[in-house]
Amino acid sequence: MKFGIVVFPGSNCDHDCYAAVRDVLGQPARFIWHGERSLPDVDCVILPGGFSYGDYLRTGAIARFSPVMAAVRRHAERGRPLIGICNGFQILLEAGLLPGAMLRNRDLHFVCRYVHLRVESRRSPFTRALAEGQVLRIPVAHGEGNYFCDPGTLERLRANNQILFRYCGPDGETGPAHNPNGSLDHIAGICNTAGNVVGMMPHPERCMEPAMGSTDGRELFRSLLAEAAAVLG
Amino acid sequence: MPATRKAWKVDVLVTLKPSVLDPQGATVQRALESMGYADLTAARLGKYLQLTFRGRLSRKAVEQQARRMCDKLLVNPVIEQYRLTVAEDRGREAKP
Known about the structure:
The complex is a heterodimer.
Chain A: E1 3-7, H1 14-24, E2 29-33, E3 44-47, H2 68-77, E4 82-85, H3 87-94, E5 101-103, E6 111-119, E7 135-142, E8 146-148, H4 151-159, E9 163-168, E10 187-191, E11 197-200, H5 217-232
Parallel strand pairs in A: 1-2, 1-3, 3-4, 4-11
Antiparallel strand pairs in A: 5-8, 6-7, 6-9, 9-10, 10-11
Chain B: E1 6-16, H1 23-34, E2 46-55, H2 59-74, E3 80-88
């Protein structure tokens, strides 16, 4: 599966994603400059973490107008996999490719540590091979990951199984103490109704090898690759 | 459309919707309370943007452009609301 990693001015997890895909998964990967007007031949697009445009105005607000985003939108509309990680998630929200918005973290701190996530839905190819209720250990690193949406949107997210991950404790229990940023309903990651567009605040690309403290990030990519292999049959 | 060039100043005030929790405002409120301001009931933070325009523009055209800018980029309607005021900027005499 060919991966394209979009590089915005201020992206800083692009090389981590590249290493995760190429060195750990052994899949072809290439960078895509945000000024491009079309996408190269790629199957999956990653919007990486960082501080695109310095987080000016609102996180992701200016990056969504980058020239490449029109092509990214078409990629998503064709049902192809698109994942936004951290700042990438914020960009997907601002672009309207996923519903909701991000607020400052509840405690105003930049939170950078490992958290536990409970897999809530297998609706996306990134979670299809996982088990509902499975607990993953993946790090977060953000100042604005306090997910918010209106009550009607939250109801739809729940009803359509679009909530992919919730913050939890080591045994999968949820509560304010296990929620690093105050996000609504402990939401850590969601997908669109089709399931192909995924946004998540935690960084799977930062836990791909034992030396990184966890290899749970691989699970998401393995799920995606298994799905692609099944489709190609 | 007016024949003369004019300068305009648009003040935009962006605030979080009342239904949205404001972590920064809550922290400021706690700080003020701890300083002894017992009568304070709320503190909320927002953003102030100043836009200036120059050209053969009517007040209405300026306001329309500014509102479009707010709707497209400056304001996120999921969490924010805004109000704006348009004033002719006589201090900046428009050059011909």
